[in-house]
């Protein structure tokens, strides 16, 4: 168990989940118990059993609620199909170990790979090796810089997350007649392109209301740092009108700091769409009023796409004969009014 997971469980009563590698059965399975939803079976002819395919899967270690849900969603979707043999490798946060794991899948001659790299740049070469070996790669979330390294990319819209958060906050403040608001932003890791995209989207959306961010600081996607950063920002600003926190996992720490400080004069928006964030929103007893999605259900879609690619099929709702080269999921805004529609998709932080 990682320190982050242990700390999260200690502070907030959450349970830790241990993931195991190895081939999975294709028999029907019970829904996952970690907040990762059992994807609904699709109704198209593409879901009829076809050519048997072996799907290799590699992702980082599940020391973060979102990553744990990625692995669970991938496995749950693979189990829906009798023609899929799901072959995950041991999850790891070590770049070299992930490269070795992917190389082992290439050597095993799997039919298709689904890879969420720890770092797209550093795993680009091994993805190219797979492609050159005739194994198509479905690149999940963190993108490989070389388009020759993957057949299809599927992931969330980081810029769109910022836009969604910015519009929600902008409209709320505008409707309240707030002028010159104090808007605080708690990022994930400031140096990552995905964080920079989220920040830009937020700034661009706020600008349409004549607003801008007063202060921002990154919190490294952890509960502990989220708590520390939020505490610091709360101390620095005696009055805040709105806060956007990029990540619901670190948001557990952010909310704890807000409650500890007894602050409730502002509205908060989260990021990613965790189950615990949805419960806070639904209860209506805290400053958290919305969260913008970056759903780990993208892993379910990646498995479905990998199966179609390996079987030489396209997407039944599209005219084209082949699966698209990239698919970007929309970032949706979850509020008390629509949370019931998203509850089943939440993941536990």
Automatic annotation (TrEMBL):
| Residue ranges of every copy of the Periplasmic binding protein domain listed in the record | 55-313
Keyword set, alphabetical order: Signal
Q: Name one Pfam family in it.
A: Peripla_BP_4
Region annotation (Disordered) maps to: 28-49
Low complexity bias located where?
28-43
Query: Mind telling me which InterPro entries this protein's record contains?
Result: Peripla_BP_I, SBP_2_dom, TAT_signal
Primary localization class, coarse:
other
The record's family statement is: Belongs to the bacterial solute-binding protein 2 family.
PANTHER family cross-referenced by the UniProt entry: D-ALLOSE-BINDING PERIPLASMIC PROTEIN-RELATED
> What name has this protein been given in UniProt?
ABC transporter substrate-binding protein
Species source reads Nonomuraea cypriaca
Q: What is the lineage of its organism?
A: Bacteria, Bacillati, Actinomycetota, Actinomycetes, Streptosporangiales
